[in-house]
Fold this protein.
Amino acid sequence: MSHQESVAIGIDLGGTNIKAGIVNDRGEVVYRLVLPTEAYLGGEALLQRVISIVEQLSDEARKRGWSLIGTGIGTAGQVNHAEGVVMGATANLPGWAGMKLGEQLHASTGLPVSVDNDANAMAFGEAWVGSGRNWRNFVCVTLGTGVGGCLIVDGKPYRGRSGYAGEVGHHVIVDGGEPCNCGRTGCWEQYASVTGLMRMARQVDPEAKELVSSKAVFSLAREDHKLASVLVRQYARYIAIGLANLIHIFNPEGIVVGGAITKQGNFLLDIVREELASSLLPVYRNSPETIDVVAAMLEDDGGVIGAAADIFEKMK
């Protein structure tokens, strides 16, 4: 990479790990770091950890003669993108709510900073150089410990009035259903997340010791294990119900599905596509209105690339 090329720092901050990297203006991660979040130490300690990562990556960029334009960060929780403030955080990030992340990072590092929700960052990465690069308008969902999402409109994340748009995990699909950690019941997150899958496994048969993890459930389902197959079909059905709602509301060109669950590849997505076909309005079942559901392709780099995309966009 020639020294004239601009680079940005991208940080994907989750409850377990902080993934960070230096990204060039073609969306390539040219240097990577992964560190444990250590969120239990509290918000102030986490801020210092992020500052230290930015300083380390800034030094690396300088050492290599790269032109660093700023830092983008995608974090779990609700983020006021315009102000760079984390307005709401999950229990996984104690003391993080209310953090003026943009202001604090800029004051400590002197770099321009953009702050966004982690699902928005991942979606922006997929829109730039990933599975959504050929679409202008699509929905991106992440199925992991929780369920996140983002609507991409004209190639960029739609954030809504205060930056809280895209909380697709908290639209209700079962009236009076399972309690959610948001305080409501029946949220999609309780049925389409890995956590939801494992709860369903315990409910179906508390004695089924072989259904010990999501990996085990899928592995057994691939071998036509009766209970695991029923479980995966029901899980795919719940995913499809939520996706059908999003398709009917937004009429996107396609859906990009990311998160831990995509490690199952087409085995799960094919079942989701089957279930989705019977959940959609007739107009969507007839070509050319078919909606593609595809796996995210950037894997662990998605949030890092998307966070960098946001700072490239901001600095245009």
Summary: The longest helix spans residues 226-250. The chain is about 40% helix and 20% strand.
